[in-house]
Amino acid sequence: MSGYLTRELQIDLGGHGYRLQALKDLQQFDDPDHAAERIGISSAQWSLFGHLWPAGRVLADHMCAHEIEGKRILELGCGLGLSSLVLSRRGANITASDYHPLAAEFLSINSRGNQLPDIAFHALDWQVPSPELGTFDLIIGSDILYEAQHVALLADVLKQHARPQAEIIITDPGRGHANRLSRMLIEQGYALEQQRMRFDPQENAPFRGRLMTWRRY
Questions:
Q1: Domain formed by 6-216, architecture
Q2: Domain boundary assignment for the chain
Q3: Dihedrals phi, psi of 122, to nearest 5 degrees
Q4: Which helix (H) or strand (E) holds 112?
Q5: Which residues contact 65 (CB under 8 A, 6 or more apart)?
Q6: What's an example Gene Ontology biological process for this entry (predicted)?
């Protein structure tokens, strides 16, 4: 992969070791064809997909034991794809999605690096309807409430792609937008359960990070 530097991360989750190819640091940038620029990803945001953030690790750890049998699962904003890799290893019916033009490439590299089959990937623009993607029993995401304008877009994506009886799980480090999303999902018929969690080993209670689960029966 030319134009930027990468590093390999070693992650232990659920009794398995995972190798993740990630960007070396937040200064890495390479958009020679202006693909990211055309879809609104600035140079400052370009590298964010290529790192393992605390919320992503918390979600992946939760996916090590979450009930998946018979469920069609969608990961939103998969980034490096750790949660999708965990679910793939468990034999789940998982589709990963992201907006970044390099996410599919990193997902493929990380699948092969962990001796896992290719994971279905969908380049999902939250602003553009994608009826071909279909509906899901379980939709997951980590740190995807990054900006205020994402909340309404995400609520609409969930409305389009969640089945009538669905479960949504999002890990959020406390960016301040989760309550607004929760109100929108309650209007869609969901009930919320949430758990305050330590996202950083150095963090002391009360914790800002939350693992949020919405269920609609």
A1: 3-Layer(aba) Sandwich (3.40)
A2: 6-216
A3: -130, 125
A4: helix 103-113
A5: 14
A6: methylation
